[in-house]
């Protein structure tokens, strides 16, 4: 009898310990839920204010979304573009909208559109770009993307015996308007620098297309890190109980 009680206690303690790893603010979505997509969207909505400031409660902190800090984005297409963006602060990511979520829970696949009305960014850049003319520069960068629509395919896989998950996000993006200010283009020649910026901004679609493949790859990694950080102590069974 005593043994049974002890065992029972141990099991209870173990279970409550495990489930305490899931941040309290994460809304659980039963696998069999008739509208799993709706449940997940509600869960994300509840998370928004917490991930915006990077505080998930119970001393669980993650990098904040507003502004989002990006250490480095390196883009080298092996041809006409070599760019390095460093120490970026991005304003606007917390204003995301999740649309058209399509979940296949048995495959652990989540497809959705992520809309970002406006992203404003500041940081350091260096670039050598050989389209239209040869651009070369290194200095401070300011920029604005408006009306970004991304399509995200997220795949999760179980990575250990406790059923912790790891997400890989694949991002395709479309930006309807962009504006850049690259200081010190052409080694501080202010005339060429102004001209270069004008050419870039008058032809932002061409520049975006050039940057896009590298940017999408980097965003995929950044988005994956964000999701994996938030869910690092959550298991599949806790998130999506039977
Ligand atoms: C958070 O951390 C502080 C300082 O380490 C501690 O006093 C407090 O009890 C912790 N709170 C929770 C909910 O774990
Ligand atoms: C997450 O899990 C790790 C290892 O189990 C543990 O060391 C860490 O304290 C947990 N973090 C939170 C925020 O629960
Ligand atoms: C990164 O940028 C911030 C301002 O946006 C600045 O305060 C900080 O010193 C920069 N860090 C590095 C390593 O350049
Ligand atoms: C999930 O994907 C599998 C394999 O592609 C498919 O057989 C199944 O019907 C899908 N389930 C839903 C709910 O879409
Ligand atoms: C361009 O200006 C920056 C600071 O404004 C300076 O650090 C750099 O040495 C200058 N480059 C040249 C080639 O003059």
From TrEMBL:
One cellular component term from this protein's GO annotations in UniProt = extracellular space
**Which terms does the UniProt entry file under GO BP?**
circadian rhythm
On whether Signal is a keyword of this UniProt record, the answer is yes
Report the leader peptide range. Answer: 1-20
| Protein family according to the UniProt entry | Belongs to the TO family.
Q: Which PANTHER family match?
A: CIRCADIAN CLOCK-CONTROLLED PROTEIN-LIKE PROTEIN (PTHR11008:SF39), PROTEIN TAKEOUT-LIKE PROTEIN (PTHR11008)
Q: What is this protein called?
A: Uncharacterized protein
Q: Which organism is it from?
A: Polypedilum vanderplanki (Sleeping chironomid midge)
Top-level taxonomy: Eukaryota, Metazoa, Ecdysozoa, Arthropoda, Hexapoda
């Amino acid at each position: 009898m005593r043994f049974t009680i002890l065992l029972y206690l141990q099991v209870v303690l173990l279970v409550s310990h495990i489930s305490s790893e899931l941040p309290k603010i994460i809304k659980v979505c039963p696998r069999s839920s008739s509208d799993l997509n709706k449940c997940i969207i509600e869960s994300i909505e509840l998370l928004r204010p917490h991930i915006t400031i990077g505080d998930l409660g119970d001393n669980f902190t993650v990098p904040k979304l507003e502004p989002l800090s990006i250490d480095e984005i390196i883009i080298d297409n092996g041809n006409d573009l070599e760019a390095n963006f460093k120490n970026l602060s991005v304003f606007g990511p917390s204003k995301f909208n999740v649309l058209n979520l399509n979940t296949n829970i048995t495959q652990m696949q989540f497809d959705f559109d992520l809309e970002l009305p406006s992203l404003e960014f500041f940081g350091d850049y260096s670039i050598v770009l050989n389209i239209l003319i040869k651009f070369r520069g290194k200095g401070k960068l300011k920029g604005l993307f408006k009306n970004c629509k991304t399509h995200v395919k997220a795949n999760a896989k179980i990575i250990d015996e406790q059923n912790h998950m790891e997400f890989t996000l694949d991002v395709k993006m479309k930006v309807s308007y962009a504006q850049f200010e690259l200081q010190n283009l052409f080694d501080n020649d202010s005339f060429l620098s102004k001209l270069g910026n004008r050419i870039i901004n008058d032809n932002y679609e061409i520049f975006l297309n050039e940057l896009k493949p590298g940017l999408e790859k980097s965003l995929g990694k950044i988005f994956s890190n964000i999701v994996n950080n938030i869910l690092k102590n959550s298991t599949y069974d806790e998130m999506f109980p039977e």
